[in-house]
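Appendix B. One record, verbatim.
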Amino acid sequence: MAEAAVVIPFRGTWDSVLPTLRALNAQTIRSRLEIVLSIDGQEKPLADVTGLVDVYVNGEQAGPASARNRGWRITDAPFILFTDSDCIPETVWAQRMVCGLMDDYEAVKGVYSSGGSRLIQRLAQVEFEERYRLMERAETIHLADTYSAGFRRNWLEKLDGFDESFPLPEHEDVDLSWRLTRAGGRIGFVPGARVAHTHQSGWVSYFRMKFRRGKWRIMLVRKFPARAVSDGYTPQTLKLQMLLAVPVVLSLLILPFFPAVAVSLVFLFLLLCIPLLLAAAATDPSTLLLVPFFALWRGTALFAGAVRGMAGGKDQCLLP
């Protein structure tokens, strides 16, 4: 029996998953690692793909939550790791994740090492770096997001895995993480477990992604109201930026008529950007000047998504 299994949910073109599988085959604990490709309802994989996995499993197309459950249930490994088919784990990734799980945690979370060279991708990486700085200081965290996550198998069994009523790659890992901590499980932060990724490459696509995140988060909070206050991952300044984003945009439109109001709102918003600016200064200083605009863009998208989530039906988070 393998010491750990890594499960990759997949639907797409076969060539796109090859870099991920090659990176997993180069892991320092490869001899003790089982690689499981869980296919989300499509044709049999190419020989180039099957040659890089220990086992693959297919099933009806139902989204990544269902695919991940099929994947971890087909293996007997005591530690289950997850990454995505568009992530490239560093060679020590699996080893560090397993060490974290051995360190009395029920789940662990790794990090993105990079996100791409475009400006919006670099700013998105700065956003993650701010969150990672917060998690390093937090006494308790409530998120093991599946681009770089690990769980003890017995806890996946206890929680019955991912909620398969989530049909999209959106917040199914948040739901599992919040159920785990509510049941008394602890999530460890492992910043040395790094995977490279390609973040959203356009400002519009980034806005749309944040809109979806805002919508699904507000709907999930209905199920876990305690997490509305703190989740050990979302900066409190971000929540205030969301509330101020639309007023700031509107104030700029009335600047000639109410300059004092506009200047005050902009100044307050800039103060709320300080933690993000500090993260940019430490990791990518050339993005500093655009950080406030990025924060305004992000805050507007999240606020709009949250409004959409509040306007939706009580069980909308279970629908596509």
